[in-house]
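Sequence design from tokenized structure. All designs in this work follow the same two-part layout: the structure record, then the generated sequence. An example of the structure record is given first.
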């Protein structure tokens, strides 16, 4: 794979090259695309999305590892992990504008603050940490949203 294609993919079509808050921008773009184009998913479709997230993660680990040699360890230009983490954040949740917004905000808080064990997971080598910390931030976000949807369904 050429360096250009690799950087195109890990930067999500060069969104990662945005000079400020490229991870936040990528998460925002992902949230907008989710809201506009992804319908409410059935249980089977959510399970299929989990399989897709796992497969894409496994495919991208070696690609990220190679990209890190050019761009630096966990470079702000590598933002494919934000897409995967946001997808985890919205699994098995109702499709709504409020879910899109809350998932975006909560996911970014976890991804930026990196509470335990997200911070430790980020230290995994060879591209694993780049993806795994965002997956964990997505899991934390999803758990919080699942609880909020049950407790306050009228807000979603």
């Amino acid at each position: 794979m050429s360096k250009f294609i690799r950087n195109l993919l890990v930067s999500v079509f060069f969104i990662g090259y945005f000079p400020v808050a490229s991870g936040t921008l990528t998460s925002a773009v992902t949230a907008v695309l989710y809201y506009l184009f992804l319908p409410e998913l059935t249980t089977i479709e959510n399970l299929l999305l989990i399989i897709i997230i796992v497969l894409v993660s496994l495919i991208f680990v070696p690609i990220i590892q190679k990209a890190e040699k050019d761009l630096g360890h966990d470079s702000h230009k590598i933002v494919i992990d934000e897409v995967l983490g946001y997808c985890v954040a919205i699994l098995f949740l109702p499709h709504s504008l409020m879910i899109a917004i809350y998932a975006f905000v909560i996911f970014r808080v976890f991804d930026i603050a990196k509470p335990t064990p997200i911070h430790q997971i980020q230290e995994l080598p060879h591209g694993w940490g780049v993806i795994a910390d965002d997956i964990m931030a997505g899991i934390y976000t999803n758990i919080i949203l699942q609880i909020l949807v049950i407790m306050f369904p009228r807000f979603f």
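The first helix runs from residue 3 to 10. We note this feature because it recurs in several other targets discussed in the main text.
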